[in-house]
Amino acid sequence: MFKYNCLNPIAAVGLDLFSDQYEKVDELKDAQAALVRSAAMHDLELPDTLEAVARAGAGVNNIPLDKCAEKGIVVFNTPGANANGVKELVFAGMLYASRDIVGGIEWCLENQNDENIAKTAEKQKKNFAGTEISGKKLGVIGLGAIGVLVANAAIHMGMEVYGYDPYISVAAAWNLSRSVKHISNVEDIYRECDYITIHVPLLDSTKKMISADAIAMMKPTAIILNFARDLLVDEEAMVDALAAGKVHKYVSDFPNTTTVGAKGCIVTPHLGASTAESEDNCAIMAVREIRDYLENGNIVHS
Ligand code: MLT
What we know:
There is one protein chain. The chain is of the alpha/beta class. Helix content is 35%, strand content 15%. It has 11 helices and 12 strands. It has helices at residues 12-15, 65-71, 83-98, 101-110, 117-124, 145-156, 170-176, 186-192, 212-217, 235-243, 276-296; strands spanning 2-6, 22-24, 33-36, 52-55, 74-76, 137-141, 160-164, 181-182, 195-198, 223-226, 249-252, 265-267. It has a 7-stranded parallel sheet, sandwiched between helices. The two termini are 22 Å apart. The relative contact order is 0.15. The model has no long low-confidence stretch (mean pLDDT 94). D-malate (MLT) binds next to loops. D-malate is lined by residues 37-38, 57-59, 82, 270, 272-273. It comes from Roseburia intestinalis L1-82.
């Protein structure tokens, strides 16, 4: 009998894939496997029984990788399983930052009792005018599962797409080669793009990669989107640049006291992968990885 622990809820559909050989336990103690979504594991005592951790998501910054390596605990993630959910929220962020959807909705609600609302709206709508994303330049920093989906969708939305990734896979480069201008110099993205979206993992080498210097190169109309991790961006510098009108908007999926409520910041509560489909996909992949490892000793992404 294998014991597994869920450190925070992951989609039940994945857990259904565990057979009678598996028992869900409330504590990590005695467990062979742990399934985790976003809960931080850094301060947890890892029992000697623990053989595998599966993160239902792409980023593994909530897992103590060094401690796991020392103890021989295999760590899995679920790359690509939630990529479509994140991609769709990136576009929602891009469109939200470009069109005054909320202003328009609020105006309609405020004027709901006006019998002539349709007529008044025609006079008011100039106040809610926006800009289109079609024809604009999008810089995609990081061409992994999510970055590639964003880049391809952007092409279909009529955007001119520039991609930057020093570690791009041959397959991704081939798939993108006809549509995305893959550039070797990220500064060109900072200088030239109207929208810049970040899709890299949080590592020591990528921490604050969107630095004050990078932000200083951007256009005053630039809209920066961060659905990867907040620590990738020097957010103090970003907030200062927004306040000074040096960049236009910062869309982030990671709420904190620096950005929420700051001028030009649009912040959501880490919702990128929060769709029924992405949650199911991640949970299913994570459970398969655990099963394949505990039962067969295989280390694969299913
Ligand atoms: C990820 O790293 O893929 C996301 O943080 C997943 C999530 O929202 O749980």
